[in-house]
């Protein structure tokens, strides 16, 4: 029997985490960027004491909200292209449940994060303990069972020795390009403090690297044949291209074979949008250029994308009856979607193998010419939408234009998550470098933005992070603004105040609904709220300014470069204006019957639009 070391279960967790390593840009670094912690009775005495012992090797960060800190951890991993990630620990009950929404964000987006919520007493001696959820029909249930549906791997540790296999399984999932996602190890609070003689080799240093599955020879041959037979192929580039670090291979593939490329929300920044064949965003929030090519394509080469409904226009975008789909994906689940022909492989290795097999083959010149023409039309429309204005209430697009004109795009990250801004940013943000565009749109979680900006900045301290957020999302969760100030991490927040949920108000109108309960003016209140967002941000320690025009916003951003802490720019915007060019129908079910003629009219349009769905 090998040597052992006597530790509490929580101490074993801390010592294990600090020994997990990876290689980034040729340098060996800890794979965990740190641990976010909000302590309570369910973790302060156990995991809290253990983290204190390793604080010099595994830093612990204090946050203000459990959901917020988990968002920051998720953004850190996303901005690190999943090469590094973080852990989060909470007490039991409400503290733990506050992380469930964030777990959903990580699960949908396939982002690694280790969640360590405290749990009830395994020995049940104080049963029910403070904050314990009691199930009258199942004595094994706790609040943490809510994590099961939003975890790639879930385990409840009821004996100290169980953590040995649980930690190993957790790391396998967190580092696996296929299974990657949130891991929840639910730590019973009494077991955290129990000691066990752990094998010393559990705490040996381990280096984790990216697994790169090669394509199957038969699937590769079929894929090459399929591409060569296409007359109007198009590449849809997804987040998998970024996580595979395949951006150079994607550009080389496009150059060699003359195939236009469009991007999903997660895939934006996988190719420099200044490239003549980079047509930008596709689908519901797509550019006119990307959607024009996508509508006529006879072959979608879907690389590292899960083909979400926004990407595909609810599967109504593609109008060619001869359409075929080639799914280059590490996940067979995604590659086979909508009868796709699979090429199961790492994105980088798959693109290299495809390009080698295609040799000198190029897409027809007519396709390249059409793509160039459509891009020129779109570029003119985008520039017009983002142009400066003296309007009292500028559009989201005009604010985006002001921000992008005021920063060095290659040295900045534009970050957003929910509302109308993701659609405008997907179309208009000029992504030029991998990771320069950071959008959480798998879950489109309101409240991700401020906390996400903090995490993205922690992963990229040399970049300027610009968070664009609406007043609705800001009000959902803004507490990590104070955390960024407390930690001395500068984030730039552009807060667009359109007095409510402008995006959903527009959707309500488009589906025939009356203006109701979205904009503040259309909701129930006795006093119309006038929130001073500048004063609010200042109260949390940020440097804040309220601007009244696009020109003032540009000057304020320029002036903020000398600021030594988080800076917030507040500007009033119009809730109704969106970029006219581009876009596509989205399947939002309209009531089949209604006493309102507007709804009945919208229903007829809805029925007609659904006829185009594959």
UniProtKB/TrEMBL annotation:
Domain Thiamine pyrophosphate enzyme central: residue ranges: 221-354
Annotated Pfam families: TPP_enzyme_C, TPP_enzyme_M, TPP_enzyme_N
GO molecular function: 3D-(3,5/4)-trihydroxycyclohexane-1,2-dione hydrolase activity; acetolactate synthase activity; flavin adenine dinucleotide binding; magnesium ion binding; thiamine pyrophosphate binding
Signal peptide (from-to): none
Keywords: Hydrolase, Thiamine pyrophosphate
InterPro entries from the UniProt entry: DHS-like_NAD/FAD-binding_dom, Myo_inos_IolD, THDP-binding, Thiamin_PyroP_enz_cen_dom, Thiamin_PyroP_enz_TPP-bd_dom, TPP-bd_CS, TPP_enz, TPP_enzyme_TPP-bd
One GO cellular component term: acetolactate synthase complex
Swiss-Prot/TrEMBL GO biological process terms: inositol catabolic process; isoleucine biosynthetic process; L-valine biosynthetic process
Top-level EC class: hydrolase
Domain Thiamine pyrophosphate enzyme N-terminal TPP-binding: 49-131
UniProt key word Hydrolase: yes
Superkingdom in the source lineage: Bacteria
Xref: Gene3D superfamilies: 3.40.50.970, TPP-binding domain
Location of the Thiamine pyrophosphate enzyme TPP-binding domain: 419-569
Enzyme Commission designation: 3.7.1.22
NCBIfam families registered for this protein in UniProt: myo_inos_iolD (TIGR04377)
Similarity field: Belongs to the TPP enzyme family.
Protein name in UniProt: 3,5/4-trihydroxycyclohexane-1,2-dione hydrolase 1
Organism: Rhizobium gallicum bv. gallicum R602sp
Gene field: iolD-1
């Amino acid at each position: 029997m090998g040597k052992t070391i006597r530790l509490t279960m929580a101490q074993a967790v801390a010592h294990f985490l600090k020994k997990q390593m990876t290689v980034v840009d040729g340098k060996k670094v800890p794979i965990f960027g740190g641990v976010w912690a909000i302590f309570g009775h369910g973790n302060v005495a156990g995991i809290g004491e253990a983290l204190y012992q390793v604080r010099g090797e595994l830093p612990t960060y204090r946050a203000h909200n459990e959901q917020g800190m988990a968002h920051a951890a998720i953004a850190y991993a996303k901005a690190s292209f999943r090469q590094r990630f973080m852990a989060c620990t909470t007490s039991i009950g409400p503290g733990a449940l506050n992380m469930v929404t964030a777990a959903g964000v990580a699960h949908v987006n396939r982002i690694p994060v280790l969640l360590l919520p405290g749990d009830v007493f395994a020995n049940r001696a104080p049963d029910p303990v403070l904050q314990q959820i009691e199930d009258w029909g199942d004595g094994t249930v706790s609040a943490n069972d809510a994590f099961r549906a939003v975890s790639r791997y879930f385990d409840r540790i009821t004996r100290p020795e169980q953590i040995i296999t649980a930690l190993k399984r957790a790391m396998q999932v967190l580092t696996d390009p296929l299974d990657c996602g949130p891991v929840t190890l639910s730590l019973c609070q009494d077991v955290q403090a129990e000691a066990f003689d752990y094998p010393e080799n559990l705490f040996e240093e381990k280096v984790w690297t990216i697994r790169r599955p090669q394509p199957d020879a038969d699937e590769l041959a079929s894929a090459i044949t399929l591409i060569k037979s296409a007359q109007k192929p198009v590449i849809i580039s997804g987040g998998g291209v970024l996580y595979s670090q395949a951006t150079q291979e994607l550009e080389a593939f496009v150059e060699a074979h003359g195939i236009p490329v469009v991007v999903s929300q997660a895939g934006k920044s996988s190719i420099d949008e200044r490239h003549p064949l980079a047509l930008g965003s596709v689908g519901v929030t797509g550019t006119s250029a990307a959607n024009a090519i996508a509508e006529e394509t006879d072959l979608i080469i879907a690389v590292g994308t899960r083909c979400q409904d926004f990407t595909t226009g609810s599967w109504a975008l593609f109008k060619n009856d001869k359409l075929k789909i080639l799914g280059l994906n590490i996940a067979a689940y995604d590659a086979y979607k909508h009868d796709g022909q699979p090429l199961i492989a790492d994105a980088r290795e798959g693109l290299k193998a495809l390009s080698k097999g295609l040799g000198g083959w190029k897409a027809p010149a007519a396709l390249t010419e059409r793509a160039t023409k459509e891009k020129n039309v779109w570029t003119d429309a985008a520039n017009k939408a983002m142009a400066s204005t003296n309007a009292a209430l500028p559009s989201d697009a005009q604010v985006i234009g002001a921000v992008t004109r005021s920063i060095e795009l290659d040295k900045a990250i534009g970050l957003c998550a929910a509302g109308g801004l993701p659609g405008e940013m997907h179309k208009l943000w000029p992504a030029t470098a991998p990771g320069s565009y950071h959008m959480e749109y798998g879950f489109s979680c309101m409240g991700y933005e401020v906390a996400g900006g903090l995490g993205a900045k922690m992963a990229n301290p040399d970049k300027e992070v610009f968070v664009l957020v609406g007043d609705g999302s800001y009000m959902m969760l803004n507490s990590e603004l104070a955390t960024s100030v407390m930690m001395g991490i500068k984030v730039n927040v552009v807060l667009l105040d359109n007095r409510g949920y402008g995006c959903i108000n527009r959707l309500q109108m488009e589906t025939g609904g009356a203006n109701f309960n979205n904009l503040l003016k259309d909701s129930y209140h006795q006093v119309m709220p006038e929130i001073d967002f500048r004063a609010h941000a200042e109260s949390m320690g940020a440097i804040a300014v309220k601007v009244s025009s696009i020109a003032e916003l540009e000057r304020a951003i320029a002036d903020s470069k000398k600021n030594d802490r988080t800076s917030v720019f507040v500007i009033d915007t119009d809730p109704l204006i969106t970029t006219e060019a581009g876009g596509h129908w989205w399947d939002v079910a309209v009531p089949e019957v209604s006493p309102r003629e507007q709804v009945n009219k919208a229903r007829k349009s809805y029925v007609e639009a659904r006829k185009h769905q594959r």
